[in-house]
């Protein structure tokens, strides 16, 4: 079926397609970077760009900005069973630019990590101020301080579901409208990556509560055997860079199989000796994949291309620690032993809950294949073994049933603007083409345009395609919200 766009909308989309040249385009909001990767230069650079100017030209971190004190809401542990009581869910509100007479409300959805607070330094904040909105930010259950139970209480993890997370959003919206806004207003729900999927699903499930959704790089299609992830990486990487990445992983495989070389290699990376071969392969591959998805493809390639083979491990290890921090190469998120052993529970905060969500519902298991990038030890059998070791024999994701319930790559929703980026491998788990005139997809088409780039603060150096993407978002929201 074909859909007819308005003349203005069509011009916006054609304008996006017309610009596709390289430039200083990297844009990244710190909230979309997973907790395990928040200790390196990528996160610090994103955080610096999200700083706000204070008095005398001094920069102020987001937690120092006025009106950013955390609040707590008594949320149900299970929306299907009121007898289980409530937990304290953390939220924030920014009224600084709100026109109480005519301004809309924006609910920023947070995903698989500690919520950083309000979106002061990003495009959501900029947009909210431009339309004189009141902006709310809600932390996802089982992350940060919003804990229904300790992570070590495995029996309570069953309440960490997409369905409960969606019901959290609706319940909080009703609370905020009654207690804070105190009248009926237009509501926009927005998020990026997994939170972008939640935004689209919330609009589909609760159209009477949320008037429009902005789904940035929303991964709405749960995928069990996600070979397409690396397939997309191969499309956007220069062939010489892809060959260099394969050389690193091939060299890793041989070194791990030799006990003497293994010890030396693991010392170079700073990886604990309880990491299995698939664990370490998963970590090394994810480090490269994130560099590409977050707009650091050129940094990855320049660090390892044309490097002597004997120097590859050292250069690759240095790059991983530079981009993601010293802790990355020993992150519990990648280790089957760490995830399954309560004695390591102090390390669980950087990925345990997300590992559970993938094991129980979403998968998104990025797997190797012949001719692909990552080692073939990273496969569905490995992930299933890790899930059972960490969470018990009964925990495995039924992605077919999940997608049947929530729509997969074709959510049954309207008034959703979906944004994608050319270099982002997660594009393959999202909506890639417009589903209707009320579910457009706007793709930033440029070398280096990455995951959730539209959520970052605007910058004069941003690629024209990214600038046009943001204009398109504003255009559609104006049509749907009347603001």
From TrEMBL:
Q: Which GO terms describe its molecular function?
A: carboxypeptidase activity; dipeptidyl-peptidase activity; serine-type exopeptidase activity
- This chain's protein is named Serine carboxypeptidase S28, putative
Q: Which GO terms describe its biological process?
A: proteolysis
> InterPro entries of this UniProt entry?
AB_hydrolase_fold (IPR029058), Peptidase_S28 (IPR008758), Ser_carbopepase_S28_SKS (IPR042269)
Q: Which domain of life is it from?
A: Eukaryota
Keyword line: Carboxypeptidase, Glycoprotein, Hydrolase, Protease, Signal
Q: Report the sequence similarity comment from the record.
A: Belongs to the peptidase S28 family.
Cross-referenced Pfam families:
Peptidase_S28
Q: Where is the signal peptide?
A: 1-27
